[in-house]
Amino acid sequence: RSLVSIRRDRIDARSLQAVPLLFSRALLLVQYIHDFHLDGQLILRRADITDVSCRATDKFQQQLLTDSGAFQKIHFAFAAELSSFSSLLQQQPKSSIVILESERRAAADFWIGRHVESDANKVRLHEFSGAGCWHDELTTISASDITCCQLNTNYIRHYAAYFARQSPSESAVQDTT
Question: What is d(CA 41, CA 64) in angstroms, rounded to the nearest whole number?
């Protein structure tokens, strides 16, 4: 229950701040902290993690988060199946929006949508564009390419609220771009 800095040197030159919640051999689930705000859960591939540390800065900033009441809002009982990204996604409600990333410095990929199906080799999403238009075809992503999954982030919550406000026919509009 400590704020830590997580480094993934092959992915990002900067570390990220988070509170670890759960882990398996393959994945680490954290409460992501960005600019002193709780920003959903990140599920990271453990093989990419090069360092986890709790520096003096992390300890001080945890105290700032505690003083503001933010640290007490962390959902420490958040449960998830972490044997693989596939198993994690299969347990998400069908209406949940997720973000999957392949974080490579040279050519990163980002997918946002609803999980449709997955297995050990691939994940299929019903993706939508930044303009909120659903793609005609499902997106297939190689499971080995996924380095991070985001759940309940501010970014996701804004799109989810948008789709919740739409009538059923409007929220099924297909992407024409």
Answer: 20
